[in-house]
TrEMBL record:
<comment type="similarity">
    <text>Belongs to the anti-sigma-factor antagonist family.</text>
</comment>
<feature type="domain" description="STAS">
    <location>
        <begin position="17"/>
        <end position="121"/>
    </location>
</feature>
<dbReference type="InterPro" id="IPR002645">
    <property type="entry name" value="STAS_dom"/>
</dbReference>
<dbReference type="InterPro" id="IPR036513">
    <property type="entry name" value="STAS_dom_sf"/>
</dbReference>
<protein>
    <recommendedName>
        <fullName>Anti-sigma factor antagonist</fullName>
    </recommendedName>
</protein>
<dbReference type="InterPro" id="IPR003658">
    <property type="entry name" value="Anti-sigma_ant"/>
</dbReference>
<dbReference type="Pfam" id="PF01740">
    <property type="entry name" value="STAS"/>
</dbReference>
<dbReference type="GO" id="GO:0043856">
    <property type="term" value="F:anti-sigma factor antagonist activity"/>
</dbReference>
C-alpha cells in the first residue's frame, strides 16, 4: 500500500473530428478511475464517437479501470461509436484477457492502426454493426 504511486496523467489529442486519442499514464484503479471516466464522457459529450485509449504507460489496472473501459464501450455504442485500446502494457493486457474484455474491446499496437481499423470497419462513417 504505497502512497508514492505516480498520479494519473491523462492527455487528450484529436486525430480527427469524431475520434479522441486518450493517453493514460499511471495506475488505473479505484482512486483514479473516476477521473478517466470524466475525460471519456466529456469527449463523447463533445461529439467524439470513437475513443482510442493508449494504455501503454499504465502498469496496473484493477476492476475499476475495467469498469470504466466497459462503460465507455457501452456509451460509445449508443452513438454508433467504438472504443479501441492502444498497446496495453503486458500486466494490463493479462487482466483484459482474463476478464474477457479483450474479446469485446479490440486492441491495436498504434493509434494509426486503430484509426485505420475504424476506417475499414465503417467506410463513410455509417456501416458499423447496426443498432
Amino acid at each position: 500500500m504505497s502512497t508514492e504511486q505516480a498520479p494519473l496523467s491523462i492527455d487528450v489529442a484529436l486525430p480527427r473530428d469524431d475520434a479522441a486519442l486518450v493517453t493514460v499514464k499511471g495506475f488505473l484503479d479505484v482512486d483514479t478511475a473516476t477521473e478517466l471516466h470524466h475525460h471519456l464522457a466529456n469527449q463523447v459529450h463533445h461529439g467524439r464517437r470513437h475513443l482510442l485509449l493508449d494504455l501503454s504507460a499504465v502498469p496496473f489496472m484493477d476492476s475499476s479501470g475495467i469498469n470504466i473501459i466497459l462503460k465507455a464501450y457501452k456509451e460509445t455504442r449508443q452513438v454508433e461509436g467504438s472504443v479501441r485500446l492502444i498497446d496495453p502494457a503486458p500486466a494490463v493486457q493479462r487482466i483484459l484477457d482474463l476478464t474477457g474484455v479483450s474479446l469485446t474491446v479490440p486492441s491495436t499496437k498504434t493509434a494509426e492502426e486503430a484509426l485505420d481499423a475504424l476506417d475499414k470497419a465503417a467506410p463513410g462513417g455509417t456501416s458499423a454493426a447496426g443498432d
